[in-house]
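S2.1 Query sequence (Site-specific recombinase XerD)
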Amino acid sequence: MPVEEAVMAGVFTPCLISSVGESPRLGDPLVDEYLRFTAARVRPNSLVAQSFDLKVFFTVVAKPPQQVEVADVLGFIEEQRAPRRGGNVVRLVDGEAGLAASTIKRRLATISSFYDYLLLRGICDRNPVPRSINARHRGHRGSPLVRAPKKMPRVLLPEEVVALTSALRTDRDRAMISLMVHAGLRRCEVLGLRFGDVHIGDRRVFIADGKGGHQRLVPVVSAFFTQLASYLSAERPSDAPSAGEDHVFVVLKGPTRGRPLTAAGLDQVLAGARGRAGLTHATCHELRHTCFTRLREAGMALEAIQAQAGHASIETTRIYLHLSNDWLAGEYQQAMAILDNWHDEISGEPS
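Output structure tokens follow.
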């Protein structure tokens, strides 16, 4: 059934279509209009995520946007929490068989933003996504629709970092991992690095397209530049069709030799090294968390870590206070020493 006939019949079956240089489309005029609007507001990866979130929602609900009600949203939440793969597989971290609460919350945020747009346009008279449940008084937030636990990020122990880096097979891979574990770069920032961004004389790299479009100039350990020089002189293809591209890190062999390395390629490199090192965890983001945790343990100021990480808010950086092994223990011991002295003075006992 063509999309137009399906909409007229009260059925909307989304089909995600992505074309180079164009906004994604799902087949509904309002949804496609919203995606064109939001393309100017968010980063490309966020646009892809929002497109997929809307596709999943309207696949489950199977209604045109104007006909969606609160009950449909609540039914969508229930469906997303239902067991996947027959209920035989659960996540070890929380024992749940459905999608992670953080994923469901993100999808609800996307849906809510879409209906806020329709409200602004005057197409809908209310947002079917409830802000909360049991908000008894105006101004009270109530209970969230989905409560996602706030988990501490995992970091690697020093010996795990040594094992991982020892398992890497090329200087290209060592340089990429060094940027994450010693400078805290995100995966996309490593892959997006271009030759003009590498400031060898200053021992720094320029992040031209960080999260949220923010740019920053960060210092990097000298070992990275040594690894980079070895990679460029002995490993990087010079005769491949795409070798002249400005990207620093490219594929070394195979049919895509010389082309910029992809996120899947970097994940494959890390998975191979992780397996050879006998590690059960070591993702790109865990390497980033490990970097900032160790910097905090070494006494680096929280504001300096914020600048190195590219965090828009210092509140995001505060997590490394709790990941750091010595900060909380040191603060506690200092406070207890004061309290012990105070107790001795009150009781008249010698300190």
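The CA atoms of residues 240 and 255 lie 10 Å apart. The chain has two domains: 3-121, 158-328.
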